[in-house]
Amino acid sequence: MRKKQTKEEMITKEVIAEMKVKMKSRTVPEGLEIDYGWWPQKITNPFSKESVMLCPDAVAVYDMIKGSEALKQYDHMREGIEWFQKHEPEAYMVLLD
Hints:
With 97 residues, this protein is mainly alpha-helical. The protein contains 5 helices and 2 strands; from the N terminus they run ααββααα. It has one domain (7-29, 36-95). It has helices at residues 7-10, 13-24, 56-70, 74-87, 89-95; strands at 41-44, 51-54. A two-stranded antiparallel ribbon has the order 1-2. Helix 4 packs across helix 5 (89-95).
């Protein structure tokens, strides 16, 4: 019987290297201070049930968008949405459009 792979074993070194390069080439919205690791996360649209894997910085921006929406801070929400449209257009279409 084959041993179940851990999260670390499933994500290759190449994927993490690509993700680090991607994250270094962009900044998160001003005022969003985040302390994140290097592991991508699977985020699911609660309505369509479609999922995408996001870099940690994109997860932080997604959380900011959803939190801003709940708190009715629409300026912050719009800023996060614009960031997603620019940096993660495919994920934007799945999660936020």
